[in-house]
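Closing statement on the flavin-adenine dinucleotide sub-project.
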Amino acid sequence: MTQTFTPSRAAGLAALEAFLPQAGRRYAEQRNFDHGPGARTNISLLSPYIRYRLITEHEVIAKVLARHRFADAEKFVQEVCWRTYWKGWLEMRPSVWARYQVEAEDMARSADYAAACAGQTGIACFDAWAAELVETGYLHNHARMWFASLWIFTLGLPWQLGADFFHHHLLDGDPASNTLSWRWVAGLQTAGKTYLAAADNIAKYTGGRFNPAPFAHSAGPLPEAPVAPMPIAANAPLPDGAVGLLLTEEDLNPESLKLGEADIVAVAAAALPPSRAPAVNAFAKAALAEGLTRSAAKFRAPGEMLGMLGAESLIAWAAEHELEAIITPYAPIGPVRDRLDAMAPTLAAAGIALVPVRRAWDTAAWPHAGKGFFAFKDKIPGLISG
Ligand SMILES: Cc1cc2nc3c(=O)[nH]c(=O)nc-3n(C[C@H](O)[C@H](O)[C@H](O)COP(=O)(O)OP(=O)(O)OC[C@H]3O[C@@H](n4cnc5c(N)ncnc54)[C@H](O)[C@@H]3O)c2cc1C
């Protein structure tokens, strides 16, 4: 399988179709091997599509289970559910996201940090992964774990800056999966449990492409007071009458949302400021444009690209189409949500209700993310059949 990602739902569906035969036992047995770019038939490479919800977790799992028995595909299904779990976990702890952002912004960026980002540490595997990430916008899951561990425990760099570096370059960069995976490696997610990369493990799972000397032997968990989970807010009722549908990069599959009798008279899309690497900005923008074209056709309404997500352009758009309410696929904790929350009072003052619509999948799953993944995992069969 080539490692090119085309930002469209059709490309996501095609990649899913191509991967389906591998999603059973072969995935469970082979997924931890990182054979390098261009040699990744052992994993799905679906994350850039699922991250923007060009394809959804629910449909990916449904198609996999139409092809394989649950017992054979359980590992793959669980991995997809890790994404849902991380989303729910962060949704219940918005302060973790807010603190990470402030810390990453305020931290000094040392010469060692710059060398790590440039792939100039002298640790061959680490330097190769840094270059691969910057060049391709993707890293294998195991490489992400090794990289994060070396960053934190061998190079002694702050996890927040590593998470920021990943988020800047990953095509699938996701506030929850990325931030919380870095925290997991650092020992902040599972009390007292860090992830320590081992040289022999890297040699084994890269098929000898890398054969590093031993690294740091100890990895003390970082101290942090536990953050109690907050309840997930109830889903808002859908407004009556003519509404506009606003798309953001958080969910580009509104045609599979339950929108009841909503009378969608206009569709718009709005982007985040282009603060990530150019390839990531371009991917997100093109995905948004594709989602807009698809949705405008589906809902038979005029579609408009509004540019940057902001109150002013939304108010002008709402006035043009005489909208009293704008519905938008629910944005989980992250930069889009931050912007929507910040602009809601301005929209309300202009007489426009901004109503997020959460998927049944998220509503059913997220409340189970209060504790660890093992408790969440038990709920997966119920989620799938629900
Ligand atoms: C430090 C670190 C940072 C990460 N940052 C991100 C990120 O920003 N965005 C992102 O989508 N994933 C992130 N992951 C999770 C995981 O590495 C990627 O989702 C996976 O490598 C994508 O490749 P794939 O689609 O071939 O995965 P596959 O192995 O084929 O898995 C199928 C799908 O399951 C989901 N998935 C698999 N593993 C995980 C996981 N550990 N956590 C959450 N979801 C998972 C993804 O949606 C993936 O597409 C991170 C992991 C680590 C350790």
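Residues 242-357 form a domain with the Rossmann fold fold (CATH 3.40.50.620). With this model delivered, the sub-project is considered complete and its resources will be redirected to Aim 3.
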